Each structure stands twice: as structure tokens, then as C-alpha cells.
User: What shape does this take?
Amino acid sequence: MNAEILAVGTELLMGQIANTNAQYISGRLPEVGVNVYYHSVVGDNPKRLKDCLEIALKRSDAVIMTGGLGPTQDDLTKETVAETLGKKLVLHEESLKKIEEYFAKTNRPMAKNNIKQAYLPEGCIVISNNNGTAPGCIIESGGKVVIMLPGPPSEMKPMFEDTVIPYFLNKAKSMLVSKHIRMIGIGESAMEEKIMDLIQNQTNPTIAPYAKEGEVTLRITANCSSREEGEGLIAPVVDEIRKRLGNTIYSLEDKPLYAVVGEMLIEKNITIALAESCTGGLIAEMLTNVPGISRVFDRGIVSYSNQSKVECLGVNPETIQRFGAVSRETAVEMARGIKERSGTDIGLSVTGIAGPGGGTPQKPVGLVYIALAYGDQVECRELRLMGNRAKIRNITALNALDMIRLHIMNQ
Amino acid sequence: MNAEILAVGTELLMGQIANTNAQYISGRLPEVGVNVYYHSVVGDNPKRLKDCLEIALKRSDAVIMTGGLGPTQDDLTKETVAETLGKKLVLHEESLKKIEEYFAKTNRPMAKNNIKQAYLPEGCIVISNNNGTAPGCIIESGGKVVIMLPGPPSEMKPMFEDTVIPYFLNKAKSMLVSKHIRMIGIGESAMEEKIMDLIQNQTNPTIAPYAKEGEVTLRITANCSSREEGEGLIAPVVDEIRKRLGNTIYSLEDKPLYAVVGEMLIEKNITIALAESCTGGLIAEMLTNVPGISRVFDRGIVSYSNQSKVECLGVNPETIQRFGAVSRETAVEMARGIKERSGTDIGLSVTGIAGPGGGTPQKPVGLVYIALAYGDQVECRELRLMGNRAKIRNITALNALDMIRLHIMNQ
Assistant: This one.
């Protein structure tokens, strides 16, 4: 079965919010045998909404609509669907009672136009809403299914999980199971070249690469009749890819790099302290997103001024004078200094020029040094990055996390 | 002129990412006289992409496409557009040179399939890409315009701003000019109550409130024939709103709070150092996003362990023992300590429980203290926040920045 997600709301077309509902629904449907082929967004305009619905009904088996179920005049989803499918809207007493109760509970008077929310297309399956006033519904008509859900994610998600997922699971003959292989330290093209034969010979599972800033992902998707079967189809492909791409793979669970590294540190009980200059605390911020990290993360120093590099990290002022604050030598002393002063297993430092100012012909914007000190050893990585300040900082942070990852793996 | 944004990428249909490109582009186009009526998303499938493009060309004057310009086999946007419009793809030498230079600069070998990215539809306006390898383009054909941009936001945004915005501005007859008034320290309903009469009497410009995590924004939008006319319509409305909302307004330029505060510090030459516990470097990371901040930002300490609070900040171990690491007393000593040790004008500290673990009945998750030391004074703010770890950290950072802002304003 294939589906289209049709969101209704001028706020989406004005750019006030992103269509995170479509993302959420799209992430869940393949698991119950529904392939999402299209997303559409249209405003609160009945003519254009009707056109979009007609296109969707032509090309998709299921149309899942979000938004436009509110009490106001411009909320027209139900009216438009009913008209398009030739159904009447009838009062659903149970929904009306629920709406009245909702207002009573939240101590607010019920406006008259909320009654409109209790009218639903005849013969539909009602989806009750425990977190708001608009009920949703499922309508089967002419071999197609149209599902309407409210727009606020806090209302939509539980309704989707409690009613829509079981509805499709019940109908599913085949389903999709996916695995995401996340990699760092390799470009998209170089990665693809290593597995070109696998991509070209793919049938089931399929293999699809995509790139994000500083990292690449492979999505392996099996068409199957159960989760077990899907996992069985995917496993040998993942094994083969792991053989070819080795240590560049950092997650088979679609986890972000900082979470993988944070959990490795916690699991192996390796303590760490950070000395950041151009990343300005970004690496500390990422690592401290991981619950439980306080067991191994001791401290981070954002040593922006030269003085703070000397005072907080014990960098020799002569080193800065002679080689510059952005140099391999300074990075190494920063890493050693933070490790010694905090008494951790690892000390990691970053110094670089994130731009837009501060670059010279010898030391251009994008020049970054990352040093990792452990025992009496220090590793140092030099980067020459392109892009704006945010991109340089982000890719630097990913590289630093990757150095920690590889260090732990090679121990 | 009306437009449709057509995103290409199976990763969107699989729910791996949200369509934030459509949000960004939609937010900008009305300012150059283009109304967005539809968003569509389709996968890396040439047949379905062609169908979507044909629908878009029928109902929209301009079709802005994002994604599918990568070097890999499944990147088919250009090929499909060229075929649909009956154009040939021809090698664009300048783009090829740029791609080669990109690889040379970043010290990576160029894969053979990157050459494909330099082929563009004949007769198009080329949009060069300074942050990646895929050029974009603008094609005028049969009274319609098709624009192709790469999918990664860090590449798409500058290309859109530098080329697409001026392209439409040049064609615009009437346009929308917007001003965003950003506020902190007031709730959406309280803010709305103070200007309800203005909202109810709006015609041109219109006034629309919306809330984001920890802050609220008013969008004032004028329909006009020039930027000057629009600004003239907006100015008296902004003046009236400023009178009513005063110091809660932190930006009339749609700048994020950290940028406003960073620029205030730089302009007034007020030096600052940070001592962060539960925010884990988030405030340092935010402030160091501001170019030029190195003139006033001396250092930040992410003092996660109690030991680091004692060693790096000079907090009395007895204070931690007696009142706890999350207490007004510890926050005050942290702020004083970082100020004294770094010799800055301001020392700001944060300590709190971001969760999910670590809460007790006396000190629940969401309890946060922020202290700001200056001269021999200290101010301290206690917060009791709801939400997950990321939300608690973010709202804490916003509150800390707001304390700095109000402190500078009251000096």
C-alpha cells in the first residue's frame, strides 16, 4: 500500500513551522507496510485543498491529512473531504460530549464554534482525541482510505499511534524494515565507490546513500512480511558493508555521533576533559546532551583568550608567541594541560580559525588543529575546512568526536 | 507570482529529516512578491518526480526544487527537469573548475562521478555553490521558471539568498515587507493582551504573534510596492508596540538573543567569563557564534564535576557539602569565582538539574540557579522549568542571556 501525507495549513506555507508531522508519520508508516511516496502541503483554501486531495486520491492508496480540524472559519479539511468523497457530515454525540468535558476539565468556557468539531463524515471510524478538542477519523471509500488528524503534534502523535498504526498493521501484507548505517571520515562518493557493486545489484534489500554535513549515511531497506524476516534480509548486507567500510561506520542504530561517543566513554569508564577554542563549547555541549555523562565528563574549558590558555591550561606563553594560538604546538599543549589539570584519562583540545575574520594567507579561515592526549601520548589532526563559521565549528566538533571514538576503539 | 516548493529526496519520505528547506524558502519568498501555494516532496524516482514537476508547472508560476543534485546514481533532479522541459544537459566548464578547486582546497581526491555535477541545462542561469560541489540553476521556459538548489541547508541558503532572492526582487510588482519583534520574559497570552486592540484593528500591516520555546515573536507584515513604502507602514505600529512592551523586546531585526547580547557586549566593551554546569557549554557555544566575540569573551568553564567547581572556580567545598551543587549559594560562588579568576567585568554561572535523572522531591528536575557577578554585586535567578533535558538547557541559556542583557541595559 502506498500513501501520501497531505498537510493543511497556511502557517506551513508562510514558513512559520516545519512540517514535522510529515516527518513523524513517514518514519512510522513503512513499519506497518505502507510506503510514503509523496508529501504535500496546501493552505487553508478550499479550492486548492480539493485539487490536492483529488491528485492524492488518484496516485495514492491512502491519504493521511493533518491540520485544518480546528473550530475556526478557515478550518475546512473535513468539509472539503466530505464534499470530495460525496459524504455528509453528521453530529457524533460521543465526540461532542468529549469536547464539552475537555472544556470543563481545563476550566474554560466552550465557544459555540467548537460544536463544529463534533461533526464527522458519515460511516467513518472516529479517532478520539485525549489531548485537544478535534477528533480525527478514518474513511474508507472507493478502495481508498482517507485519514484526518489534527495539526498540533501533541494531539496528532498519540492518535496516530493508538489508532492509525493498528489500523494499517491489521491490513499489512508486506512491510518495510530499515537500518541506517552512519559513517564519518569518508566522503559520499568515496563511500559509494567502495560498494558500487552492491548498490547496482540491489533488489531486496535496497541500499540508498545520503550525505549530511561532515558525515554520510546508508539506508538499507528490506521489503518483507515481518520484522524478523526483514532483519534476516538486511543482516548479510550490513555484514558485507561493514567489511568494506570498517571503522568509518560509527552507528548501526541511527544514533548521532556525540551519543555514540558519550556512551562509549560511559561504558568503558574513560574520563575526559575538553579545552576548546574555536568550537566555543560546542563539543562540551554535545557530549553533555548524553544522560549519565557526568560520570566521565569532568570539565570543559572554553579558552578563548590567550591568557586563559596560559592560566587555565598551562600553555607556555612562548609557544603561543612563536607558533601562534592556532598551531599544532599550541593544540598539543592545550590537550596535555587539560588532561593533567583535571586528572582525566583523555584531554582533548581544539584551536582554529572559524571565521569570518581572523584568517591570513598562511593561516586561512578553516584551519583547525585537534589534539588528543592520553597517557604520555598526543595525537594531532590538522583540518582545512570550507564554509561559514557554523559549518566549520560543526565539522570540527564531528572530527574531534571521531578522534575520541577511534582512540577508544584502538585501545 | 505564485510558487511551489518541490523537494526531492527519499530521506524526506522516510522521515529521516524534516523539510526545513521548504520552511526557510517559504519564510523568505513573500518578501520578494512571491506567494507560496504548495509544498511537495517526492522520492528519488524519475517517473514520480516527472509527474510532480508536471503538476507543479501546471498550477504554479515558479517551481523551486531542492535536493537530488548530488554526484550519485540516484540524484536525478537535473536529468528529469531537462527531459521535462526538453533541454539538453551541457558541461559548464566554470562549474567543473570550481568543483575541482573545491576538492583541491579540502585536500580530498575528486571522485569521477562528481563531474556529473558540472552538467547543467542549456541556457540556464548558473548559481554557483561556495559551500559544496553541486551548482544550482534558474531556467526560464514557457512563461514559467524552474529553480534547482542543492539539498544541504548550508549550501542551499547562501545560494538562495545571493541569487534567487535578487532574481525575484527584480521581477516583483507588489511585495510583502515584514518585521519581526522578538521578546523574552513574557508569555504569549500576556503579550497578546497588551496589544489586543492593535491585533483586532489590523489591516495593513497585519500583526501575527507566535511562540517559540522560551520566547515570543510578533510578525508585522505590510503589503506594499517597495521596501521603503512597507517600512513606512510598519514603523508607527512598531513604535506603539515598543511603548507597550518595553524591555521585553530584545530585537527588532529578527536576531537571536545570543547575537543581540554578544553584540551588546562587544559594543560596550564589557568583558565576560562563564561558569556552566547543567548547560554544559551551551551558553559559551551560543555567544561564540558571534563574530568578533573574542574581544570580550575571555573564557568559559564547563564545571561538571564538583572537583572542577572547586579547582577551576574556587568554590568552597563546604558550600557544596552544605547547600548542594545545585543551590543559590554555589551559583553565587561560581559566578564570583569565574569573574575573579578571569578578571572580567561580568562572571555568569549556571547550575541546575537538566534531567532525566538526578532530581529529588526537594530539588526536582528543572530546578536551575543562574548568578551574575559584577563589581562586588551578585544577582541570582531561580528557575523551575518543565520539559526534557534539551528544553531545560535551552530555556536556561535564554534566561542567562536575558540576565546579561538586562544588566547591560540597566547600567
Summary: The mean pLDDT of chain B is 93.
